[in-house]
Specification:
Layout (H helix, E strand, L loop, with lengths): L2 H4 L10 H12 L4 H7 L3 H4 L1 E4 L2 E4 L7 H13 L2 H10 L27 E2 L2 E2 H21 L12 E5 L6 H10 L8 E5 L4 H8 L7 E6 L6 H22 L6 H8 E5 L2 H7 L6 E3 L16 H7 L1 H20 L6 H15 L4 E7 L6 H13 L17 E3 L11 H6 L6 E6 L7 E2 L2 E2 H18 L3 H6 L6 H4 L8 E6 L4 H22 L10 H14 L3 H5 L3 H13 L3
Bound molecules: 6-O-phosphono-beta-D-fructofuranose.
């Protein structure tokens, strides 16, 4: 697909023949997961596929083979695979910003052939030049060759960023924390609530702290404000503890502050030496950037070899998405099943339930990836969509969620498709007496999707001795869709595969809906208004009066009640 065809008018999926037939199919669909499993011993095998190291069982979704066949036709009729190829080739599929969408280039191996040349630029060379600098820097910090201004080894690296410049790095660090082997802890500041910067730095020694200011644009209010706060904290603490003079301040900033950005001129304006800045490119969306230099904090805390393995995992899933036949292509199938759930089964939300405490930030990461990407009501030609788009992604690790919100997933009135994620090998193989605790944990993982799919019938409830009105309360309808994703272990490669899987699922949904999953204009109005409201918040009476009565009332409440 050329740039022109990539940007061609999107196809309204609801006008396709496949959509029409899916509607008929939905109406006519009979049976239940109980019946489908009972009558088809091959069901699990038929709907289970391996993608790189991920083992993905789709069989507990409310699908039959005709559903999948029709969904694949829908993908064909909405040019999903052509758009996929256009993305990998560097076509400007992000039309509203006239940009290529090339996060997949960030994980191509060095020396891949043929080289990827986009807009006249050898992208592979650019990517590996920056990676080399990031790794050299990480090695220097980890070995102690790079020290703070007073000559002490770095012990804490603080990443300041927000959105894509925070959520990916935090999630990956939390997931792979056991691999941090250089005595360097990573911390993260994102919120402009000043308590975030305060609490994160309160117990730190500035002499052993390195700060990474991560911002694609280097204009984000939260990040620049936090970077200034932390610079002030660091310099004043060094003045006190190490007698830093004003002449030495520049050197202190150079030894304790580095930056990651696509806007290296702005990095310099901030006072960070461009030598200590790592770039990336406007073809990397913020929420797709954890595998760019935005991951510098990970290379420092976890090490370049861990980061390399992570990238290799991303690439393995990219290759699967790019080359696997459609009927076995896991991101394609999962994206299409999400479309089925949203547009035909009327699901509004989607739970992501990792059975791994180390993945506790994965749902938060996915919220930005999926909702900033597909929370759109117009297609890429400006026309209004006529079907639902987006899904509300949310979740918590199991088993905690089981004791909080699973009740609604099991017995509520809404359909909530759920992705369960688990690993065969425990990160911490602990025993409670003779009991292997990981097996207890996994028994819960297996039990939940089984309960959702097959439920509990009236006969089964009565057979347990329950009578009267309690019977209904104890019944489970079943037919609550879920996908189970397993892998041998939560390695860096498997984590890369998981992230890339969800990136591509998000892509597939956006492509079917005809929306541009790579812009985020919806966050702009709030930012604009926050700037405009600043004088009113500071007490300018005429600015307060100019507001609507609700906003004016809230600002007055703030002005009257603030102490300190
Ligand atoms: O406001 C939304 C957003 O632009 C996200 O898309 C992005 O990840 C985040 O802000 C941070 O942006 P930056 O990396 O430019 O500071």
């Amino acid at each position: 697909m050329s740039n022109d065809t990539a940007a061609a008018d999107p196809i309204d999926p609801t006008t396709t023949d496949a959509w029409e037939r899916l509607m008929e199919h939905d109406e006519a669909l009979e049976g239940s997961l109980r019946e489908w499993f009972a009558t088809d011993p091959e069901r699990a095998a038929r709907f289970t596929h391996d993608a790189a190291d991920l083992h993905v069982d789709l069989s507990k979704n409310l699908i039959t083979q005709p559903t999948v066949d029709l969904l694949l036709e829908l993908a064909a009729q909405t040019n999903v695979l052509e758009r996929r190829d256009a993305m990998f080739a560097g076509a400007h599929i992000n039309t509203t910003e006239d940009r290529a969408v090339l996060h997949t280039a960030l994980r191509r191996p060095a020396g891949a052939s043929p080289a990827l040349v986009v807009d006249g630029q050898n992208v592979d060379e650019d990517v590996h030049e920056v990676l080399g600098r990031v790794y050299a820097f990480a090695d220097a910090v980890r070995s102690g060759e790079w020290t703070g201004v007073t000559g002490k080894k770095i012990e804490t690296v603080v990443n300041i960023g927000i959105g894509g410049s925070d959520l990916g790095p935090v999630m990956v660090y939390e997931a792979l924390k056991p691999l941090a082997d250089a005595g360097i802890e990573a911390r993260f500041i994102s919120n402009i609530d000043p308590t975030d910067a305060y609490e994160t730095t309160a117990d730190l020694d500035p002499e052993t702290t390195l700060v990474i200011v991560a911002s694609k644009t280097f204009t984000t209010l939260e990040t620049i404000t936090n970077a200034r706060l932390v610079r002030e904290w660091l310099l004043s603490a060094l003045r006190e503890s190490a007698g830093l003079t004003s002449e030495q301040e520049k050197e202190a900033v150079a030894k304790h502050f580095v930056a990651v950005s696509t806007a290296l001129d702005k990095v310099e304006e901030f006072g960070i030496d461009p030598q200590n800045a790592f770039g990336f490119w406007n073809w990397v969306g913020g929420r797709y950037s954890v595998d760019s230099a935005i991951g510098t904090v990970l290379a420092v805390a976890l090490g370049p070899s861990v980061f390399e393995e992570l990238l290799a995992g991303f690439n393995a899933m990219d290759e699967h998405f790019r080359t696997a036949p459609a009927e076995e292509n896991v991101p394609l199938l999962m994206g299409l099943i999400n479309v089925w759930n949203v547009n035909f089964l009327e699901a509004e939300t989607h739970a992501v339930l990792p059975y791994s405490q180390y993945l506790h930030r994965f749902p938060a990461y996915l919220q930005q990836l999926t909702m900033e990407s597909n929370g759109k009501s117009v297609r890429w030609d400006g026309s209004t969509v006529v079907s639902e788009t987006g899904e509300i992604f949310w979740g918590e690790p199991g088993t905690n969620g089981q004791h909080a919100f699973y009740q609604l997933i099991h017995q509520g009135t809404r359909i909530i498709p759920a992705d369960f994620i688990a690993f065969a090998t425990p990160e911490r193989p602990l025993k409670d007496g003779e009991q292997d605790v990981h097996e207890l944990f996994l028994a819960n993982f297996f039990a939940q999707s089984k309960a959702l799919a097959f439920g509990k019938t009236e006969e089964e409830v009565r057979a347990e001795g329950t009578e009267g009105e309690l019977v209904a309360a104890r019944m489970f309808s079943g037919d609550r869709p879920s996908t189970s994703i397993m892998a041998p272990a939560l390695t860096p490669s498997v984590l890369g595969q998981l992230i890339a899987l969800y990136e591509h699922i998000t892509f597939v949904q956006g492509a079917v809906w005809g929306i541009n999953s790579f812009d985020q204009w919806g966050v702009e109005l709030g930012k604009q208004l926050a700037n405009q409201l600043a004088p009113a918040v500071a007490g300018d009476e005429s600015a307060i009066e100019a507001q609507d009565s609700s906003t004016a009332g809230l600002i007055r409440y703030y002005r009257e009640h603030r102490q300190g």
